[in-house]
Each structure stands twice: as structure tokens, then as C-alpha cells.
Amino acid sequence: MMTYENLLTKMDGELLIVTLNRPEKLNAMTHQMRVDLLDCVHQAEENSDVKAIVFTGQGDIAFCAGANIPELQGRTLQSEMGKAATLRKKLPTTVERLAKPTVAAINGHCYGAGLEFSLGCTIRVASENALLGQPEIKLGQIPGSGGTQRLYRFIGLGWAMQLVLTGEPIKAETACNIGLVTEVIPQDDLIGRAKELARVLGSRAPLSFVAGRDAVLRSTETDILTGIDFERKLYAMLMATEDRDEGLAAYHEKRKPVYKGC
After folding, report:
1. Which residues fall within 8 angstroms of residue 54, CB to CB, at 6 or more apart?
2. How many CA atoms lie within 13 A of 181 on its CB side?
3. Looking at the predicted structure, is the pLDDT value of residue 79 above 60?
4. pLDDT tens for each residue of 111-161
5. Which of 19, 175, 189, 206 has the CA that lies 20 to 30 A from 125?
6. Phi, psi of 10 (to 5 degrees)
7. CATH 1.10.12 spans which residues of the chain?
8. Residue 45 annotated among the catalytic residues of the structure
């Protein structure tokens, strides 16, 4: 993997651990960090040694406190319609549609662009001290990286309205209760649990992972009959894969499957 100014990357077995590394600024998301994150995940997708990715923040205070505020000052409507806005939208969507699993280990404050980035991950887990929110309305704005759309899909209209329109954060326990994160974990155990989940996800048949994820995501975009038809087509497609045969053979032979993504 390449080195980046404000990202730390390291391999842990078949996992890539990516750490947002601006602790003095609570790991606030800069334009360059978005560029680097996109480059990082594209490289990971092409690297057969990487089975899954874990994202976290440097330190024990923040995952990502949101956008880098100084970059927002003086921004005009014209500039917002350009590269910055496109990049902001592209990052969570790219992570969401990546062919490899991603886990966000939310180790503290997770606001604004940081929360929107995490919403693109396959699974989110949080430390007990984590706070999550979309504070943009306090600055006369609204979320601009897909937060209004993904929050509704994950937590429903009521909670999405509360987070977006009050700008107030919620505690990790509440976030778990409403489905924004799936687990709340002691800070010292967070990365270990995130890695455990990532290893499980990364051990599954790659084509099945993508198909299952895409089928679930499609359920948020269409009516149930259309969604079931989409699911059926993916199911039929997987029936013809080598990995499906390998999974059945491994089950009968009582061994771990060796998937090849074909």
C-alpha cells in the first residue's frame, strides 16, 4: 500500500487497517483525505491479499469529527457544484459498493462527514464513549455526502429527522438501539472486535458477499416484488459459480472452504 499524509495503513493478516490520522484536529476530513481514501480503497480492491478493510480514527477521542471547517469558509455555489462536491458524494458510495467488506470501528466522536463516511461501510461498531451526529444544521447547512438519504434507510424517518434537524449527537447505546451501529464495545476491545467481524466477512465467498449486500441495498430502493426478483436472479447466478460448488463440498467434507471469487 502507498503512504498518505493523513492516513495510516497496515496489513494485519488478510485485513487492511486504515486509520484517519489527524488526531490534533479530531481526525476531521479534509479534501486530500477524501482523495487519499478513494485511492486507498481502489488499491485494496485490486489487491488479492486484502480480504476486508477496517477503518478507524487515530487516538481514543474521535473517529472523525466531520469536515475540515477551514476548507468550507469562502466556498461559493459555483465551487460547490464542482470537484469538491463530486468527491464528497463519491467517497461513501464507493466504499458502499466496494467488492470487499468494510467495517467502521467508531472510536469516539463521529460527526458530519465522518458519520456519512461510516454509513458507506458494510458494518459499523462503536466504542462506549462514541457520540454520533449530523451537526451541519448548526452551521446553516445540511449533510452533503449522502447523510440525509442513508440515515433514513438505516434508522427510519423519525430518527433521521431528529439527527439532521436538531444537529444534536446521540450516544453509542442509542445508536445501537436504533440500528445506526450494530454493537457497542469497550474502547480497549473495539479494534479487536472490528477485526473479528472483518475476518468473518472476508472469509465468505466474494461473489456471494457482493450479491447479498447488493440485494439488501436494493431493498431500500425499490418495491418488494422487484427486490425479490432481483434477489432471485442473483441466487440463480450464484448457483453456477465454482465457489458455490466449493462451499457445498467443504460442508460435506467438514473443512473450511477455499473460495476463489469465481
Report:
1. 15, 16, 17, 18, 102, 103, 104, 105, 191, 194, 195, 198
2. 30
3. no
4. 999 999 999 999 999 999 999 999 999 999 999 999 999 999 999 999 999
5. 206
6. -155, 150
7. 206-253
8. no
| CB-based contact 180:124 (threshold 8 Å) | yes
Task: Quickly state the pLDDT bin for 83 (edges 50, 70, 90).
Answer: low
* Three-state DSSP class for residue 45: helix
Can you tell me the distance from the alpha carbon of 56 to that of 201, in angstroms, rounded to the nearest whole number?
17
Contact indicator for 63, 130 with CB cutoff of 8 Å: yes
Question: In the numeric block, which cell numbers belong to residue 118?
Answer: 461510516
Query: Per CATH, which fold does 206-253 belong to?
Result: Lyase 2-enoyl-coa Hydratase; Chain  A, domain 2 (1.10.12)
State which amino acid sits at residue 97: R
Q: Is 7-203 a CATH 3.50.30.10 domain?
A: no
pLDDT of residue 31: 92
Q: How confident is the model at residue 1 (pLDDT cuts 50, 70, 90)?
A: low
The verdict on whether 136 is a catalytic residue reads: yes
Average pLDDT estimate for 34-61: 96
Predicted confidence (pLDDT) at residue 35 exceeds the cutoff of 80: yes
pLDDT at 84: 67
The three grid cell numbers given for residue 140, joined into one nine-digit string: 446553516
Which of 71, 116, 242, 253 is an active site residue?
A: 116
Spatial distance between the Cα atoms of 61 and 78, rounded to a whole number of angstroms: 35
Give start-end residues of each CATH 3.90.226.10 domain in the chain. Answer: 7-203
